[in-house]
Design goal:
By secondary structure, this protein is α+β, with helices and mostly antiparallel strands. It is built from one helix and five strands; from the N terminus they run H-E-E-E-E-E.
Length: about 120
């Protein structure tokens, strides 16, 4: 009778220990992922005011990424070249002036076509 009770305790302790070790492993993985995502968003968080500016379209191309083919334009802005994604609604030609928005982030600046303009090219 005593050995059966000891065996039951041993089995119960090993089962509980197994689940606790699995839970702590999951907790560490979840904590690691949470830290990774927070660091990613911290790097990309805006750090200043959105600035409206304009540039000249130098060339147009397609870029392949995980979403498929994306239309992009290489734009000259303040003496430097910037590549911006062109939404499908935007119709631009080479040499057009395009309205852009730039936002400072921790690792540089983020530039995009101005969503405030219904016709950003012209």
């Amino acid at each position: 009778m005593g050995t059966t009770r000891n065996l039951k305790r041993h089995i119960r302790a090993s089962v509980i220990g197994h689940f606790l070790s699995q839970a702590s492993g999951f907790g560490l993985v979840a904590l690691g992922l949470a830290l990774l995502f927070s660091a990613f968003f911290w790097l990309l968080a805006p750090r200043g005011e959105v600035q409206e500016l304009s540039g000249t379209v130098l060339r147009m191309a397609f870029r392949e990424d995980y979403e498929g083919s994306q239309r992009v334009a290489v734009v000259q802005v303040e003496g430097r070249e910037v590549t911006v994604r062109l939404p499908m609604r935007v119709r631009c030609d080479i040499g057009d002036t395009i309205a852009l928005q730039t936002t400072p982030v921790r690792i540089g600046t983020a530039t995009r076509v101005s969503p405030a303009k219904t016709r950003p090219c012209g």
